[in-house]
Design goal:
- By secondary structure, this protein is mostly beta strands.
- 0% of the residues lie in helices and 51% in strands.
- Strand 1 and strand 2 form a beta hairpin.
């Protein structure tokens, strides 16, 4: 499939509905719901305001903490880009 000029190539996204915990750069945690997931990142719903560019950790189940960066935030949804492999839960 050919892309149009300016179109960004994205990894395939999978719709999910998982409860998680988002730990911000100050160490504060907020409950979130992960709405979709790809190899590169995810979209989530949160009641807190996220700062674009902030480095965070996403914890879903027992799979570890995933380092990520907030790429966009609009209303109660935000997009994260994963910045490394999962780390054991501390």
């Amino acid at each position: 499939m050919r892309r149009n000029v300016g179109e960004v190539k994205r990894a395939k996204r999978i719709d999910v509905s998982h409860d998680g915990l988002l730990i911000d750069s100050d160490g504060l945690s907020n409950n979130v719901r992960v709405l979709d997931l790809s190899a590169d990142g995810c979209r989530l719903r949160t009641d807190s305001t996220l700062r674009i560019g902030e480095d965070v950790q996403l914890r879903v189940g027992r799979s570890g903490d995933y380092p990520a960066q907030v790429r966009w935030s609009l209303g109660n949804e935000a997009g994260l880009k994963f910045t490394g492999p999962s780390q054991p839960v501390s």
